[in-house]
Amino acid sequence: MNSYDAIVIGGGIQGCSVAYNLADNGLKVLVLEKDYCGRHASGVNAGGVRRLGRDLRELELSDFSMKEYWHKLDSFLDEDCEYEKVPQIKIAMDEEALEFSKNRVEQVKAMGFEHEQLIDTSTLKNFVPDVSDKALGAILVEDDGHANPFKTTVAIKHKAIKYGVSIREGEKVLDIKGDDKTSWKVTTDKDVFNAKYIINCAGAWGDKIAKMFGEDVPFEAVCLLLSITSKIDLFLKPVIGFQRRALSLKQFSNGSLMIGGAFKGSLNLETNETIVDFTQIARNVSNATELFPKLKNAKIVRSWGGIEAICEDKIPIISKSSKYETVIHNFGYSAHGFQPAFGSGKIVSQMLLDQKLSINNVDEFRINRFV
Ligand SMILES: Cc1cc2nc3c(=O)[nH]c(=O)nc-3n(C[C@H](O)[C@H](O)[C@H](O)COP(=O)(O)OP(=O)(O)OC[C@H]3O[C@@H](n4cnc5c(N)ncnc54)[C@H](O)[C@@H]3O)c2cc1C
Question: What is the arithmetic mean of pLDDT over 27-42?
Answer without folding.
Answer: 98
